[in-house]
Amino acid sequence: MAKSQYRFCVGPWNFSAGQDPYGPPVREEKSFDWKLKALKELGFEGMMFHDDDAVPDIDSKSAKQVLAEARALKRQLDDAGVVAEMVAPRLWFAPQTVDGAFTSNNPKHRQYAIDRSKQTCDIARELGTDILVLWLAREGSYLRESKSAGQATEHLVTAFDALLKHDKKIRLAIEPKPNEPMDHAYLPTIGHALAIAQQTRDPKRVGCVIESAHSLLSGHDPADDIEFAMSFKKLWSLHLNDQNGLKYDQDKPFGSANLRVAFNQVRALERTGYGKNGEFVCFDVHPFRTTREEHFLQHLANSKRTFVHLLKKARTYPEKEAARLIADRNYQDLDQLVLEHLMGV
Ligand code: XUL
Ligand code: MN
Questions:
Q1: Domain for residue 32, yes or no?
Q2: Residue 328 in domain
Q3: Tell me: the pLDDT tens digits for 90-126?
Q4: Which residues neighbour 269 within 8 Å (Cβ) at sequence distance 6 or greater?
Q5: For the chain: N or C, fewer Cβ within 10 A?
Q6: Residue 2 is assigned to a structural domain of this protein
Q7: How far apart are CA 2 and CA 338, in angstroms?
Q8: Is the CB of residue 242 below 6 angstroms from any atom belonging to ligand 1?
Q9: Which position among 51, 52, 53, 167 bears the catalytic label?
Q10: Taking a C-beta distance cutoff of 8 angstroms, is the pair 207, 173 a contact?
């Protein structure tokens, strides 16, 4: 296997017990300590956190208690030799976020979302990361006429500015997704994320996270999204996984649905130097619901294996031959060159 310079990362939610909207968990819910140990054994160096992954039942605790628990978690991570890659406010569970968080029609609820996210910045600082990931789950609408996209954009800028002002070091990494749970999201693509960054008080501190499945749900090629974001130096994290067409967000193992699309993502990382400033490669993947207890970790191990194999494919890609075919505008044979390279023939 190719040796990689990449650092890998997962979140506690990626050890999911199989619950979906149609049925209960099918595997035992694992403890945080179990997940941390497993992650380490799999050769992952980083862990992603939602604010309430870091501090469970967060809304029932005082600010002081939240910070004390975050500090204790940092000690546990240090002892395990694991880095907190990012923290993300979970703005889609609370009763205050039923009609959206930063873009709710209710000003008190918008304030709740801002205050909760400021607290997430404080947790991030305690955990030693400057990345606040914003997956804006409910910032969109089910009904076009219930909100205004223009006003929502203003609400989002207000919220982002409040966070940038609250913490002078924090970087906001927007993770766009075009739909689910919303019909239409207000920041559906990487283009929207980087465009709204320019409206904030400190555009340099507003960037993005690309998730393969989310790009595919937008009808985009994730490799192109990666190169686009990297050309702005704004790709600060990455959630690799896979997705079979325009369906629910599947979070399949990396490469599972389309190996060529996965190859091009790895190649895009290599071409743009992703990871050279310490950025992590995270796998936002879930076990298939059918997965047995004893195979609980295979989706993570396999995603990493596939990544490392594709890294070798990216590094042995016949660049000269490809360049010759490109110069000759012989894309027909370029296509076959790629296929045969991937097939190993
Ligand atoms: C949702 C998703 C989230 C974010 C973190 O589709 O990908 O898990 O990555 O909030
Ligand atoms: Mn994700």
A1: yes
A2: no
A3: 999 999 999 999 999 999 999 999 999 999 999 999 9
A4: 6, 226, 238, 275, 281
A5: C
A6: no
A7: 19
A8: no
A9: 53
A10: yes
